[in-house]
Amino acid sequence: MMTSANNWPPNTVNSGHVSPEMLAPFQTSAAMTSGGNAVMPTSVVELTISCRNLLNRDISSKSDPFCLVMTKESWNDKYFEIGRTETIKDSLNPEWVKKLVISYNFETIQKLRFEIWDVDPNKKEFLGQFDTTLAEIVAFSGRQFVGKLTGLPNRDLGEIVIVIEELSSCKQIVNMKFKAKSLTKSCWFWKNDPFLVLTRSNEDSTFSVVMKSEPIMSSQNPVWLPITMRVRTLCNGDYDRTIKVDVFDHRSSGTHKLIGSCHTSLRNLVEGNNNNKYPLINTKKQKTKNYTNSGILELSSIAVTEEITFLDYIRSGTQMHFAVAIDFTASNGPPRDPQSLHYLDIYGGRPNPYEIALKGVGDIIQHYDSAGMFPAFGFGAKLPPTGDVSHQFPLNGNTAHPYCSGIQEILDHYRNRLATVTLFGPTNFANVINNTAAIAQQFQDGKHYFVLLIITDGIISDMHQTKNAIVNSSKLPISLIIVGVGDADFAAMDELDSDDRRLQVDGKYAERDIVQFVPLNRYLSRNHNNKNELFIKSQADLAKEVLAEIPDQMTGYMKSRGYKPIKTETTFPNTSSLST
Question: In the beta sheet, which residues pair with residue 163?
């Protein structure tokens, strides 16, 4: 069965506008560099917290509230404090000045609890709490996220209001290209293999490395590859901060020889002071007679641009759509066999590998779709009543509407399907990939992105067709996540997950890497006394790895097509009538 463009994504086709299904900001923490190894920090968000109509615990005055913010790991039942606001005297509608700053990770479940307390001289009284996840807050399309306070039965405890913003003092990218002339040889017998090291000054007059380039082999006049990095990484947004550039002669032993150094700043580089030509000085040679310098470092080009992040695209209305495909081939083993990968432990309650993968990834992605509707399919099984093999069938049995409302419903239909179909084969991926690609083909407007999760136990039977499907899909707004379960040889999967080299088939190369493959057993091999906690932690670790590349893949596609997020204006309330 093929899902047509008329029913996925829902509520978007022929509507004339984009529905607010996927609004969740994120900025990847992966490295961003070209010709260097500068690393970008993790995205950070800032929460502004206020409350409305709090319960009054005081008799002669109003409550004196503060907000305690806590979090917990997904595999742990205990919350721990990560911050608290100041206490505001006599207020049932507090607006706290102190902000909460949190690292935001798309690939993990970040559970939050907000507790409101009234502080009195001799005691502290509970006013209510609100439990949520950071994903639910950032995915909210409006400016203010409102939650109902709970925790005291039969009492109206009021509301909490949370405003979230990406914390980035400097959202700029600098692109630089350096070259050098007439470098002094560090050895008489052969030419230098020079490389660059950029460091920034610290408050204590020390320097911290921010970038190292690759060496240019056998050259006294090297031209290094372009360097792309965040301005925040280079100088923490301070254009006048001292930047030192060292040029070394590379040695395989690691005992690199300093050729010379110079000092500058981003402002000097941008403004072109001294024509961006800097003498390289080796202080050990300065006392040598007739020494002038060890060569000249020259900035060939520089450009500073505003960074466009995953958050920018999502906040401007770009939607993400998720689909699931599950392997129902016979190589998984009979579902009633306890050794089967599809075995349902009705009495013991232990999830099978497919359930672990579904819940681990699904618990993350379901927070990023306001509609909560996911197309879910199986492949490689004989279907009743004809017994024909299907390489794509809806888990819910509804070919016209293959959607499941949330991950739990996907799990329920998966379990029901195991009782009605006959596991068979072969393991073909091309159908489900091409189906998703056919839909993505119709939404190349910068406002939609598609993610297909495939969970499988074995070796792909249609590898050539699958490669073709992936190469063709690499031109489209789509990412593929493949989770391998069981002990099969997954070597071929690493070829599809082309992190080191682009995937190619029949002389055609993939435009970009769109596949992330992870073997589930990597997260099930640990020994732990508490088996339930083991499975929960495995799910969290699995989700973190398989989802980590999605933001980069999406922003990479958008930028390659020239799609820019539409900036929206923020409207602030009129405060002119408020008394001070």
Answer: 48, 144
